[in-house]
Predict the 3D structure of the following.
Amino acid sequence: MSGPRFVLGMVTVLAALLLQTAVLTVLPLPGAAPDLLVVLVVAFALAEGQLSGLVTGFVAGLAADLAADHQLGRLALAYAVVGYVAGLVHDDTERSTLLPFAAVAAGAVGAVLLYAGVGALLGDARVTGAAVGRSLVSSVPYAVVLTPFVVPVVAALVRRVEPDAARR
Amino acid sequence: MRGPRLRLLLALLVLTAFTLTAIDYRAGEGSPFDALRRGSDTVFGPAQRTVGGAARSVGNALGGLPRLGRYQEDNRRLERENARLRALLRETDGLRRSDAELKKLLQLRPVGQYAVIPARVVSVGSALGFEWTATLDAGSRDGVKPGQTVLTGDGLVGRTKRVSPFTTVVVLLLDPTFTVGARLQRLGGVGLASGLGSSGMQYELIDQDAQVRPGDVLATTQSDTFVPDVPVGRVTRVVGGARTLTRTTRVDPFVDVSSLDLVGVVVGPARMAPRTPVRS
């Protein structure tokens, strides 16, 4: 990974986390707040493949874990797996315009279920059926709405920073 | 990187994440990662304060728009309520007079007993909507410590949990990890109120004989964390029957956590004149 590419990853993750915690959670929207980070992780996975999705997911998750009020590593695990799986369709991205939306929606569902799954293992009182339902019902539509603003931007940034990597 | 090596990295990162979670879970309060969290809060806090403050004002303006039609209806309802409360106030005048006399007798200082610092909410909730927390733009530099009461004019908001120099994470009263000792104002019975997430709060009354009714008001009792007599919420539904050990009721909090803006943190103890024996 080149230096500029590393900087791009770090800057986008931190900017997304700042937007997430200071803006998206404050907007008067019904249900749980939109999850910008999962959209960002899937966007990197679609643009660059499984390795990028996996690493971006782990780093973004760890950063979000530090800012939140739960055990460290829970979002890191969820986002890393989501990034890895979303990277599987990296090569097909250009064939369909609907694919990014489907990948982001699936990623949002996966992240909630993985996060809640580990929480259930640890006996987290916050993980109840109602809470999982509420999280799923709002996270999927919000993630889909964010997709057209995030996925093309990340793809363009990656192309600009590493012109060879996009063709890999 | 492809195939087996990529899968090895996946396994490695998943294992790392889960190990971190397990260590953090076992340690609980006083986790080895707390210093890391404080560090990240210290670096991230000022940026969050700035961006969050701006977003808050935009959000409030936008949030008002869909409600414009409802304001008229609200107005009529409030006028009716006002008239009712004014009548109630006349009734309580007499009570207030005797209360004032009693207070004088006990030589207690009137209102303004607690040192409360104002703070603005910069962020509400996190992590996929499972956590009912809020971040305040005041921290240890303003005198906030973990485990202090957070309130508004309406009532209880929560308790402070994680304090960095510039920001504080508050566990809101709706959070499933939140519990507070609460007294029924009408009956005086004591019990525990705890958060249920999006479905409000529940209240478990220890006294079995108390006839709790929908509409009863709860207020905090004195504890290490909470100052006494902060209104918590109103009982909406009684769930448990007469034969169960504790009677569980649903409570609707007075404070609407989704529209929090300015809150107060109780940073100092009550300043009271020492009580002298009452002689008759």
Summary: Residues 3-25+33-167 of chain A form a domain with the Arp2/3 complex 21 kDa subunit ARPC3 fold (CATH 1.10.1760). Chain A touches chain B through 57 residues (CB under 8 Å).
